[in-house]
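2024-03-11 09:14:02 INFO queue: dequeued item Recombinase, len=477
2024-03-11 09:14:02 INFO validating residues
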Amino acid sequence: EFLTEAETAKVPGRPVFNSLINLIEKGLINGIVSWHPDRLARNSIDGGKIIYLVDTGKLQSLKFPSFWFENTPQGKFMLSIAFGQSKYYVDNLSENVKRGLYFKLRHGGWPSVAPLGYKSDRNTRTVVIEPKTARLVKESFNRFASGEFSSMKEVRDLFFRNGVTKRNGKSLHFNQIRGVLTRTFYYGLMTYHGETYEGKHKPLITKKLFDEVQKVLEKKYNKKPQKHEFDFTGFIKCKECDSFITAENHKKYYRKTDHRAEYVYYRCVKKKGDCSQKYIPQVELESQLRETVSRFSLCESWKVKMLEMADNDGKKDRKFAEGELQKLSVSFDDLEKKLDKLLESYLEEIIDTESYQKKKNELLQTKKVLQEKIEEIKTKGSSWLEPMREFIKEASEAAKIARAKNNGKDIATFAKKVGSNYFLNDKRLEFLPVAPFNLLAAPAPAASQSAANLQMCCAPNRNRTCISSSGNCYFIR
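2024-03-11 09:14:37 INFO prediction written
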């Protein structure tokens, strides 16, 4: 039975895929033939379902012309890598769009909506000065720097009197006025996502005038800078109320010893109502995070072995791809010959116009499919190999990071890399390991679970897991 899915594999819930899973779970089918694992899943939930069905024996066979799979621990490990790479490919599509934006920025162009005082020229695809609003922007800077304007309200009123308003006809918001007065674009430098580029557009003011305005703004509207920067905020939530965990710095003075000490505590912000969860000292939270990181460690000897095995599999993969390319190239050449013969038959009036067009359309459709397959093999090749190498190298650094001192930021960065959905529940850290790191830390009872529903709790007395080998396969003890 051939099944074709029209919906994207980026998100779970595809009807055709779900019906396929139901057929497998009912025992009606036990094998799948697909072009590549990324045709089956490009999200962690669907990929986890496939691996779970393989673990339980309900799915006994997976065949791909462009990807080797064998129902062994090593094969499932490679399949998990392939699913992770497929998800990465989808996520990377947005990066391709960003690449075009940054290309334009590097060449002095502005890739977004033209700022106030400018307009977009569709012919040249650049921003040019809009005389009316540009005059108001210049006047605002000059009068604010000179002290004639003492507040942003006066700048807002200037724009309003001259017809520069929001779409509903109301005055511009104060944040919009502040955005105008603090925008480096007006003296020739473009700031985009925190990075600065030199623009080719004509500036409205000088940098000297801009700096003078910034000094005035700093005196009038300067906000107190945050005193403390905490390492473990921004990615942990409260399990009870789903609010984020924040941090506080407390000072304590000991009279007997004349000693002052500072302590950091993490607690729920309790923005969503009452919450009974108590605070946790930073030392306890950091200890649990270090334990989390250490669970994903890989010893040096296994790093060397796994890199060697990955390289060997990569060579086999490339050899297989070369064979597939050769077969497809032969089919492509045969198709070209058929098109030539079809055209000759039509020109010699052996076949009528209707038959010619019908057969030509069929051959062109087949040709397009072959072209896409050839291009896909050429483009992807052993695309899984580099991510796998990176994964092995990162896992080999885990123990070193966990043992190091005063490296809270490194601990937080690695923790976010190996897990997601971090929660604090009764001072215990819970999280969801992400592929492929979950294969390094999952205990034996959970080894058959999918990455989508596997949950670990960081417990000090849990035995560390390790990776061993049997022949050319990996398995988890």
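2024-03-11 09:14:37 INFO annotate: The longest strand covers residues 245-254.
2024-03-11 09:14:38 INFO item closed
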